[in-house]
């Protein structure tokens, strides 16, 4: 184990940081740049042109968070990438790495809250293909994807299908979420696909999906690290320069102690962003992987909420202003808390998995 | 960055685990497991066993008998201590005064004091706080007046853990009463058997008597027992506090309490959803802190000595310790055992000692955030 960045990792981090600084406030499609810079190759097998793993993903997502870059990176590169990897779709991965094909994942349903196993969308056999009915909500970056990887319940359990984004019977109602992200609700009304659209067979779909969610969650934890680090920096700078009662705000102990608490939360968040990456690197056992990721997300959600709320509070009125940056970081963090499960969901998942581990493993003496 | 345990690190873990399993005396293990108070002899026996194995001082340089472990190995060692129900090592000699003697002492002092600390033959305690100097430690008034080649020490030190067992005490005393507050303080090693030293136990709210007041009534101490320069004691004191804080996270002890709560739940067949979620919440927080400790240790072994970051460990570590003793109490419900309430009361001290948690926030604000 070694916490120092290799030369390649440092280079990657610097290059994302440069991009994030330059692209700040710029909009438009960043995907071609991401592909060109090689960032879409992270985690893909070497055969598909890939390199790196969870640590490299962490470095990218952290810097994108610092720059408050709105991009499909987590949804299309990390989430979909992990699922394609788990399904051994090297051909599609290669196309994705090169930026030629774009995949997103649809799994949440209106009734399910965060539970990926609560699937009511159905897929039933129809000749040599399948027909799908149902609804998916909050699908990230569907409008820029050509293919949707979608969970559906079959007679044999949950499966994953790859649907062309413009398949007949598939309608998307897109809307921007409050952090500026591209989100859509999907409706499937008898979408017919061939058998080769089945990417994870009935019974395997849920495990594959959770593998993808866990990878994406780790990336989101790293993004949160970038967001929260900036919020603390902004708060410290602001309270040092803003004068009231004839002195800088930072000279008041009530405020300096609050910032010390924010710092402690930030360091715990940082640790858990690393911990999430470590979990993905080391845990082949899916129980332990899920526990580790849930631990990380639960902590990140808690620390991130505290840092965000206090950043607004310590800025005072200006923190409420739409024109000022800190509020935008806060809004993105508020969504990051929830995406792939909020704190309550992950604490419960962690508690349940811990009990299962106790029941399944013989107690060592 | 490589976040995986290497084969060598995994092998080291089993080596430590095996050693604890085969060498830790079962009566000591039972006491730790049952959260019963340890006697001096319990600490001494376990210390001796680690010393014989060469593992008594993970934090020391190899030249003085340290293990030469890197941060990861030290982290693994602490995890295994917790998992194997071994007691913590008393920090006063090993991780408080020894680093100061190594860093700022002279060769004669290193030769005299380090070997018996390493072997566990001499016990130490810490003479910092005074009745009139708590968080404002630099306002201390214990005097050390130079008379020829001795200092004459006069004053009272308080809140001293394990003074009743100690052979030696390290004392912050004012050698120049005319100097500014932080100047004029010296760091002096005093033999507890010196004429004029008296120890009075302070009974705490948990009924324990592990904390003491130590009174110095014209105690003569050779000038040779002063560490470093006269008047530079405040620098050494701060150095020591940063070392102390790294240890006060108490992750191993927390893991052990967590385990005890889990056992309690199993034994009582508790199915309370709220309880299991509270356990999960603290478990997660502890995981985050343990990983933070690992990062601090890694920075330390990469050459930087423990800095203000160790305040995070002290601050959050003691908060978690307290939350755990609270949970232990709550898990017991109306039948909370006396040992659990005792521990709950006892742990209220954790956020007060080693620089109260409010002082830690001052340190973070001032030295890290520079506000």
Detail the topology: elements first, then pairings.
The complex is a heterodimer of chains A (365) and B (371).
Chain A: H1 7-23, H2 31-36, H3 54-66, H4 73-86, H5 90-97, E1 103-106, E2 122-126, E3 129-140, E4 147-154, E5 157-164, E6 170-176, E7 182-194, E8 198-200, H6 205-241, E9 243-244, E10 247-248, H7 253-282, H8 286-315, H9 325-338, H10 343-360
Parallel strand pairs in A: 1-4
Antiparallel strand pairs in A: 2-3, 3-7, 4-5, 5-8, 6-7, 9-10
Chain B: H1 7-23, H2 26-33, H3 40-53, H4 71-83, H5 91-104, H6 107-119, E1 124-127, E2 143-147, E3 150-161, E4 168-174, E5 185-191, E6 197-202, E7 211-222, E8 226-227, H7 233-248, H8 251-267, H9 273-301, H10 310-332, H11 338-346, H12 357-368
Parallel strand pairs in B: 1-4
Antiparallel strand pairs in B: 2-3, 3-7, 4-5, 5-8, 6-7
Shape of chain A: globular
**Number of discrete domains of chain B:** 3
**Contiguous runs where pLDDT drops below 50 for at least 5 residues of chain A:** 359-365
- Helix and strand content put the structural class of chain B at alpha+beta
Major sheet attributes of chain A? 4 strands, mixed
Q: Give helix and strand order of chain A, one letter per element, not per position.
A: HHHHHEEEEEEEEHEEHHHH
What fold name goes in the CATH topology slot of the largest domain in chain A? Butyryl-CoA Dehydrogenase, subunit A, domain 3
Strand content of chain A: 15-25%
